[in-house]
Amino acid sequence: xxxxxxxxxxxxxxxxxxxxxxxxxxxxxIDALELMLSRVEELERYLRSPPPTTxxxxxxxxxxxxxxxxxxxxxxxxxxxxx
Length: 83
Known about the structure:
Elements: E1 14-17, E2 22-25, H1 30-48, H2 54-63
Antiparallel strand pairs: 1-2
């Protein structure tokens, strides 16, 4: 791998800001921060939900039928009447 293709990874620095002592993370792109936020929200939803049971799993499987490939409807061919 050439040096041009390698990603430059910056060391993350945490700084305290103001009296509230908020932590500011530097060195992350907006996309990376949004990805982290979505992952945290997903984990929070998972932790708040009740633990899965076998019945719940079975009900979920029944609700989601297998995806079958839809075939286009066959067109009927009419014979032309000859005069």
